Amino acid sequence: MELKDLMNSPMLWAVSSIMVIVILAQATLFMRQAFKSAEKMGISKDECITGMRSAMITSIGPAFAPVIVLIALMAVLGGPTAWMRMNDIGAARTELAMSSIATNMVGSTLEAGKLSMIGFVFALWGMALNNSGWILFGGYSAPQLGKAVDYMKQKFDENWVKLVMAAAALGLFSTLLGNAIIRGGNVNTKNLFAGAVAFVSMSVISYFFKENKKLQEFSLGLAMVIGMYVTVAIF
Amino acid sequence: MSNREQEGILEFRKIIKTLGLTFVTLALIANFIPAVYVSLTTGLFPSGTELLELWLAAAAAFGVGYFVQPISFFPMINMSGSFLAWICGNVGELRVPAAAMAQKVTNCEPGSPKAEIMSTIGICSSIFVSVTMITFFALVGAQLMPMMPKFIMAGFSFILPCVLGAVYADLCGKNFVLGVIVMATSLAGIMVYPKFGIPGGLNMLINILVAVLVARLYYLKTKTN
Fold this sequence. Notes:
The complex is a heterodimer of chains A (235) and B (225). Chain A has 235 residues and is an all-alpha fold. Chain A has helices spanning 3-7, 10-41, 45-60, 64-77, 79-87, 92-105, 117-140, 142-155, 158-181, 189-208, 213-234; strands at residues 182-183, 186-187. Chain A folds into two domains: 3-140, no CATH class; 143-234, no CATH class. Chain A contains eleven helices and two strands. In chain B, 84% of the residues lie in helices and 0% in strands. The mean pLDDT of chain B is 91. At the A-B interface, helix 2, helix 3, helix 4, helix 5 and helix 6 of A face helix 1, helix 2, helix 3, helix 4 and helix 5 of B.
């Protein structure tokens, strides 16, 4: 079989779909359990649905990021692999970097049309090995990390623990944002501007339209779109 | 916290733990199936040494992330969110924003049992949306994308800074001053650490530690005043 036939073969779609099915099944069961437990805890179903709706609206915008890489990755690694890898763990950059490290190892390259069969095999193994790092550690350590957080809450002043968690989140997201703005020691002005506009928009919506519940559900998505298109309009 | 809430969340955690560990194992297996299938059909298997080399290359490039990221994100997504997020990815730019918004519109107290339930609902919702969109575009998107107006496409390159900027504003909320200080220390860190030969993978960890230190000073200062 030719590489480009194999890459897009129905059987490869089938075996790649197993991961996506696992992901959907897990999300369905977790969601069902959350609704059940919410009822027992006295949280109304309406509230759960409000939360769900807001999360769904918020997700539409950011989900375009993997979609765009998907289109690029499809041209190189074929539909099924790109589809599976964009649905599972491993940021777009990570998957691209890993598959290029793996293909280079066997003297092949990721450029469309130049990838060899052995290059493709290595790219698949490379991505699988890399992703398993996160699944293993992130997944199996979750119960232990939960215990550690509970321990902290019991041992230390509650306000201090809250502040530590808030600070850790700020440190984390300022780094993620910083990495999007600073590339290789240089500030990317457009990205800096885009991030700043989104930051201001979100602050304004959260602060001045606090009472408008409907608007709050859209706030993050809206702030993001404002940031994106004000930047496009100006630069 | 009421008894009812306490009992409810303990039961929730117990069930989620069993479900979560099962799905993590399933995902770990599913993760390798396409590679095994392609090796079987082509007869091309990487040797043991080559697999080790591949794994070492992966660990060298991303190994720090395997540990730093799950710990860093944990307080925001809890155990149930960790089970979901470390299988389906896009944690910072997609799962956390969805969880944060689900909590925000339902007025959750941070760290409360209700917040834990809402973040689970938020993350599951974001999974349904992203899987649907990625699947749709994988099937028909390649034909559809080039037909999008140029202006719309141009905006897509700013998705990342914008979603992170908006999330940061939301996180700043009650601790605005702290948020601004941490932003400054983190940006300075990203510029400066490489000059000391600190690998990029450690930036996140150091910035978080600095942020906690800043918070400690901030806490002591506001406490005494």
